[in-house]
Design a protein that fits this description.
The structure holds three protein chains of three kinds. By secondary structure, chain A is mostly helical. In chain A, 74% of the residues lie in helices and 0% in strands. By secondary structure, chain C is of the alpha/beta class. Classes of the chains: A mainly alpha, B mainly alpha, C alpha/beta. At the A-B interface, helix 1, helix 5, helix 6, helix 11 and helix 12 of A face helix 1, helix 6, helix 7, helix 8 and helix 10 of B.
């Protein structure tokens, strides 16, 4: 989880530079719209584009991969226990006879849904809470920061495990709990960044004009940390997939009959020398998912960062 | 903060873990009464008021530094003391290694920004940072097994922290054989965070006015970076590294599980699975303490490195 | 045509130039294409002389200096020739250049707050500069370091060596930077806007130090600046740059007395003067400097030039020697005196001294209607803002986690003034004197105990939140930084509409009013769907002004509204403000550090020092008869854009920096820096220290807070 924090900081520092210098620098150049510029920069970053393509393919696979499947992930084939990949079972089967292809598709879907819910939720909560705390200040800010600092001390992974252990492995419960223990890291980053935005003249200007506080947060602060939020969202997906995998691997996550990639790898790990395919396929899917998403978010960060010379070699 | 966090965990753990389930299905079946007595001895009887139990628990810690027993009566203290040592063996080495590797690679890639070598380092970091720990560790295990088979001797142990039959000098060799794989795995997944942070901070400072000023004085670019940019960029990196210390112990849960390393991480899973409430709380307390230590270390690092915050 | 064509200056054959730059070109890659930051600069620098390079932002003057130092980014491509004492510098690698930098050529940068490494002591950084070239041992260097610090005027140099940069003020840090620059007795010192980040009083000190440093080392100086006053004060020769090219090159007297390039003429006409009452409006240069990408081969100023003809767009005009109308029978021997004055304008020969062509001024003076209110005596006009005994104190905190209060910052200590209808009041002073705090305190509309603020005759004390909001309709603000005060993610329409929406104007009305306002401030209403980034600095400031006008306020508060703008743009915004005052009868409260601007625009002025007015009154009275020693010093520190006046006048140099405002004991706050105080007898001095002076004089016309004036 500290890794996520590092990444958030990197993103934040890049953007801070961005908002102050970038706009000024841009105006002097030929006028490209922001979106055009960002798209152009992103597309020039080949690893990021590759990441995006892989990610889209994975998503499509998780949605439509089930269509050509010959078996359901719930169905067990007693004639083929721990069978190696074959024409019938493309990815092989496990020791209970479940078709690994169907399981991988379903697990991927499950992991993705959890990740998307968690990441969307944390982004929204962290943006609102962090920005509001920074703008309103005073006792509200102190309370929010108190909660955040407290959550930083509490080993959240443990709480996560405690809750999900009790929930019996329902993915919805897991997603909600992950949301609850994940929002505060990004909220702190949003808070830090919003603090500097609060000091911008356009915020004071609105306040002196008699614009209400909530409106300032929504219209002036949050839009100006938009690029941070986008990056944070993509990183949040990676982070959520990773922690869900970890949880499921040690047995505190999604539980049978439901499967997620983590759970699949967990069971595959036990037979890694006897039936390695049980490990290879889900591991490959998982790695592709996280790495592609990470490349995308790295590309986005580069595109948003005006000091990045990667774009300067036109 | 640490105390509050620990107490909250105590109540949470009591609410979510039920040691009673341990005794279900025992043969011969135990009566309610017998279970109560067994649990009572370890201050875990859920029929007793939670506040009474909390009082006993807290009193023992404050007066005797006794963190209670597991449901089967094993003292948590002994277990924790042993496991902290085992974890430290693994984690300290890995910590030092990945910090050094991360910072040096960060400096290297920053000073060669946008050259091929920088791009390779960056790409590798993104990948290793985002390969799931489990996948990475298992891949290493597979590779080591393959290597062992090829060489014909067991160069690397893939599980455990030591063999029982090693003595003297052999003990060190044995330790290293066990230590290598989990350390590699930890270093690979952890160095990239430091590397990327160091790179981006150094790049920020390289373009700072005072680095240009140093060059204007007659320092070459390399000298200016080494003397003027590096020192300033190390300040936030040091803070970050110090803050990563608590994450080390919990973060090692998966690594310790995969390599069957009898450390704190594995203990944590163990306590959860075995409804060891007191154990869970002790782990949580340890984690919170580590966070606090990390924060203090971060402050110290800043004071040492940055004259601006020194008090006169 | 009576001009002689000379490419560049006399070739190095017979020249004793120390530094010879020939056809220097620098370009950078960028997102939108190649930026030609410098496109053909040539000049010679003679030993011991000072060359001023002036130009607005983006004119390529700083890039030129970095190219000479070899400190440009790797991405920049540099062509041409830079010879130092006959040795070609372009093409040398970093190692070879590093032996020249700091030893033969050294540099003073713009922002002293960021040019010293924060984690090393002043001594370390100075010693490093002395030892890096292997000419000196550490011990010897330490001794020399003390000597250098003393030379640049740092008190107690021995003990200050161990201090870190953050323990110094900006002015003191710039002195240290100068000490480092002269450490190895360089032949050339390049000063890149060395005083831009500093207050005028400190600027005067630093220019003095630079002059002493030059005398001490005998070095030639390249002074890069946008401030014509600074040039007039220090330069021997001047190069005026525009869009990456030199457009005029002459001795400092010629540039100011008989400029030949329309751009130079426009620039000089656009500067407000502190030393006289301008009878007429400033003359702005229309349009904006070009973007330096894919520039056509033509005079780059042609698009903004009122006298441009077709020939201007045929080719890039080269610097050519000017022949005076008096001696045009001597047809270009090449070595006559006139080759000292070169200009890149095809119509240069037609232009006469005083910036006229065929007897008519090149830049026509705009007309601004006079206000009806100006006829009404001040006493009969209603006050729109009355401030009574305004006080603002902050607790001074220390400690990261547990904050202890260790003192109080007395930012504003009891100032009173009023502003009448159609009147402009200015508050001036050094940074840190509390002028911006005063503004913000008024905007907060929540006076501290014992103070009162009245808007349009009604006190705001005791108003509830709702009523305060209503008051805000009459009171709007324009900020210093035109980029920072406009949300980059909102369209211009939304920006201007915001205050009206806050007061629930109907959307039809908002629509109409936005159009009206954009027209009023000189923006095209069709651009209302664009984002602020699509506008230049001056246009953005107009957006800010339009927004402030939206609710028809009685008073607009302006915090340094033109200080972030280039001179040629600044004049247009100042004229707009004057016009608004005349047409709408609006009042302004204006905070500025640029006294020339204040003199031009304000009716009344308050000079602030450490939270108090030391002098307050009508602007002409204060400027023509400054009474308080601080005002005298402040006015004498302003560099005038006139080399003759600038070099002959008596200058009062203030010593030291503005003390921190944490002391509230009785006595005059200016006593530590007061030149008058030092000349007094001891018993009179005691009165300065022990008794707080009150504002005395002709009430409402001109008052000052000095016991002896």
């Amino acid at each position: 989880m500290s890794v996520n924090d590092v990444r958030d900081q990197l993103a934040a520092s890049a953007l801070e530079r961005g908002d102050s210098t970038g706009a000024a620098a841009m105006s002097r150049r030929k006028r490209l719209s922001r979106r055009e510029l960002y798209t152009r920069r992103f597309l020039r970053n080949r690893p990021a584009v590759a990441g995006l393509i892989i990610f889209v393919m994975i998503v499509l696979f998780s949605i439509f991969g089930g269509l050509p499947a010959k078996h359901s992930y719930l169905e067990t084939d007693f004639l083929n226990l721990s069978a190696a990949p074959s024409a019938d079972h493309w990815f092989g089967t496990n020791n209970a006879g479940n078709d690994l292809y169907a399981e991988t598709v379903h697990g991927l879907q499950r992991s993705l849904i959890i990740a998307l819910i968690v990441s969307t939720g944390t982004t929204v909560i962290s943006a609102v809470v962090g920005a509001a705390a920074a703008y309103f200040g005073g006792s509200f800010e102190r309370v929010v920061l108190g909660v955040i600092h407290f959550l930083m001390v509490v080993p959240t992974f443990l709480i996560l495990a405690l809750f999900s252990n009790r929930s019996g492995g329902s993915w919805i419960v897991i997603a909600v709990i992950m949301l609850l223990v994940n929002w505060f890291w990004p909220a702190r980053v949003v808070w830090t960044l919003s603090l500097s935005i609060r000091e911008r003249d356009y915020v004071s200007a609105s306040r002196y004009m008699g614009v209400s506080g909530l409106r300032i947060v929504v219209r002036h602060i949050i839009p100006n940390i938009g690029s941070l939020l986008i990056i944070q969202f993509t990183l949040g997906v990676v982070g959520a997939v990773l922690s869900e995998t970890g949880l499921s691997f040690i047995g505190f996550g999604v539980k049978p009959p439901d499967v997620s990639l983590g759970a699949l790898i967990g069971s595959g790990a036990d037979t890694v020398s006897s039936a390695p395919w049980l490990f290879y396929f889900p591991a490959a899917a998982l790695t592709l998912l996280t790495v592609s998403m990470a490349l995308v978010s790295d590309g986005l960060r580069d595109a948003f960062d005006p000091t990045s010379a990667a774009g300067g070699r036109a | 903060m640490v105390v509050v966090a620990t107490n909250i965990t105590y109540f949470l753990a009591n609410a979510f873990l039920d040691p009673r389930t341990l005794f279900v299905g025992r043969r011969p079946p135990l009566t309610e009464q017998q279970v109560d007595t067994l649990l009572q001895a370890n201050n875990l009887n859920s029929h007793e008021s939670i506040f009474l139990r909390w009082w006993t628990w807290a009193k023992d810690i404050v007066l005797h530094w006794d963190w209670g027993n597991s449901p089967t009566g094993d003292p948590v203290n002994g277990e924790i003391a042993f496991r902290i040592g085992v974890s430290a063996e693994l984690l300290l080495g890995a910590f030092v290694l990945y910090t050094i590797i991360g910072i040096s690679l960060g400096i290297y890639s920053a000073s060669r920004q946008y050259k091929v070598s920088d791009r390779i380092v960056q790409a590798t970091s993104i990948i290793t940072l985002n390969i799931p720990v489990v996948v990475m560790s298992l891949a290493i295990v597979l590779a080591a097994i393959g290597f062992n088979q090829k060489v014909g001797i067991r160069m690397f142990y893939v599980t455990g922290s030591s063999s029982a039959d090693a003595h003297g000098f052999g003990k060190i060799v044995d330790l290293l054989q066990h230590l290598t794989l989990p350390t590699i795995s930890l270093v690979i997944i952890s160095y990239a965070g430091t590397q990327m942070l160091q790179r981006s901070l150094l790049l920020d400072t390289i373009s700072a006015d005072y680095v240009r000023m140093a060059r204007a004085k007659g320092l070459t670019k390399a000298q200016a970076i080494r003397k003027h940019a590096l020192r300033t960029s190390l300040i936030p990196v040091a803070t970050q590294v110090a803050f990563s210390i608590p994450g080390l112990f919990t973060g090692a849960v998966l690594t310790e599980t995969i390599f069957n390393w009898q450390g704190m991480g594995q203990y944590f899973i163990d306590t959860l699975n075995k409804m060891n409430i007191n154990g869970v709380v002790a782990v949580a307390a340890f984690g919170a303490l580590m966070t606090a230590i990390g924060a203090v270390l971060a402050d110290i690092a800043v004071v040492v490195l940055d004259p601006r915050v020194r008090v006169h | 045509m009576t001009v002689t064509k000379i490419v560049g200056l006399p070739q190095s054959g017979h020249s004793d130039a120390l530094l010879a730059v020939r056809d220097l070109r620098v370009s950078f890659p960028s997102e939108a294409g190649r930026v030609d930051a410098v496109a053909g600069v040539s000049f010679d620098l003679q030993p011991g002389r000072t060359l001023g390079i002036v130009g607005e932002s983006g004119s390529g003057k700083s890039v030129t200096s970095l190219a000479i130092m070899g400190l440009l980014d790797d991405a920049a491509s540099v062509h041409g020739s830079i010879r130092l004492g006959g040795r070609e510098l372009l093409g040398l690698d970093d190692r070879a250049m590093s032996r020249i930098r700091g030893k033969d050529i050294s540099m003073v940068f713009q922002d002293p707050l960021s040019t010293l490494t924060p984690v090393f002591t002043i001594g370390d950084q100075l010693v490093e500069a002395l030892t890096i070239h292997g000419t000196m041992g550490r011990r010897q260097a330490a001794e020399r370091a003390v000597e250098l610090l003393r030379l640049v005027g740092i008190p107690r140099p021995e003990s200050r060596l161990k201090s870190f940069p953050h323990e110094f003020s900006g002015g003191m840090r710039q002195r240290v930077v100068i000490a480092i620059a002269i450490a190895n007795n360089p032949q050339v010192i390049i000063a890149d806007e060395p005083t831009t980040a500093l207050d005028v009083t400190i600027q005067a000190q630093i220019l003095q130090v630079l002059k002493r440093a030059q005398e001490e080392t005998g070095a030639a100086v390249i002074m890069i600046t946008h401030d014509m006053g600074v040039v007039a004060s220090v330069a021997d020769d001047v190069v005026v740059m525009y869009a990456g090219r030199p457009v005029e090159h002459a001795s400092v007297y010629d540039v100011f007395a008989k400029p030949r390039m329309p751009y130079t003429i426009g620039l000089l006409a656009a500067i407000p003067r502190a030393d006289r009452r301008d009878a007429q409006p400033l003359v702005p240069i229309q349009g904006n400097p070009p973007i330096l990408i894919n520039l056509p081969d033509q005079c780059q100023f042609a698009d903004r030039c009122p006298i441009a003809i077709d020939a201007c767009r045929d080719d890039v005009p080269q610097l050519e020697a000017v022949l005076n109308a008096s001696n045009d029978d001597d047809d270009g021997g090449g070595h006559d005196r006139d080759s000292e004055h070169q200009v890149a304008c095809v119509r240069a020969a037609e232009i006469e001294d005083g910036g006229t062509i065929k007897g008519r001024p090149i830049f026509p003076v705009p007309e601004i209607a006079a206000s009806d209110l100006a006829q009404v005596p001040r006493g009969e006009r209603k006050p729109v803002l009355a401030v009574d005994n305004l006080v603002k104190e902050f607790p001074l905190l220390k400690g990261a986690v547990l904050k202890r209060r260790i003192g109080t910052v007395y930012a504003v200590s009891g100032i009173s003034f009023d502003i009448r209808e159609g009147e402009t009041m200015a508050i001036v002073g050094e940074s840190g004197c509390g002028k911006t705090t005063t503004l913000l305190e008024i905007m907060e509309l929540a006076p501290q105990h014992g103070s009162d603020i009245q808007i349009d005759g009604h006190s705001v004390t005791g108003l509830n939140k709702r009523e305060i909001r209503t008051v805000r309709r009459d009171l709007q603000i324009v900020f210093q930084d035109p980029m920072g005060s406009l949300n980059p993610r909102s369209t211009v329409f939304d920006l201007i509409a915001e205050p009206m929406r806050a007061f629930r104007y109907s959307s039809d009305k908002v629509e109409k009013r936005v159009e009206e306002l954009m027209d009023l401030v000189g923006l095209n209403p069709e651009h209302s769907d664009r984002f602020p980034a699509a506008f230049s600095g001056g246009q953005r400031q107009r957006i800010g002004i339009a927004r402030a006008l939206a609710t028809n306020p009685k008073l607009i508060v302006l915090d340094e509204p033109v200080s972030a703008l280039d001179v040629s743009i600044q004049a247009g915004v100042i004229n707009l403000l004057e016009e608004l005052k005349a047409r709408l009868g609006i009042s302004f409260l204006f905070v500025a550090h640029d006294l020339s601007v204040v003199r031009h625009i304000a009716d009344r002025i308050g000079v602030m020092y450490l939270g108090k007015f030391v002098e307050y009154g009508e602007v002409d009275a204060v400027f023509e008869d400054p009474q308080h020693p601080y005002t005298t010093a402040l006015l004498s520190a302003i560099p005038l854009p006139d080399p003759v006046k600038e070099r002959t006048r008596e200058r009062i140099l203030l010593t030291g920096d503005l003390p921190s405002p944490t002391d509230n004991s009785p006595g005059c706050r200016f006593v530590s820096r007061c030149q008058l105080h030092q000349s007094l007898e001891p018993d009179r001095q005691a009165r300065c220290r022990d008794e707080t002076p009150a504002l005395t004089g002709v009430d409402g016309v001109h008052v000052n807070a000095c016991h002896w004036r």
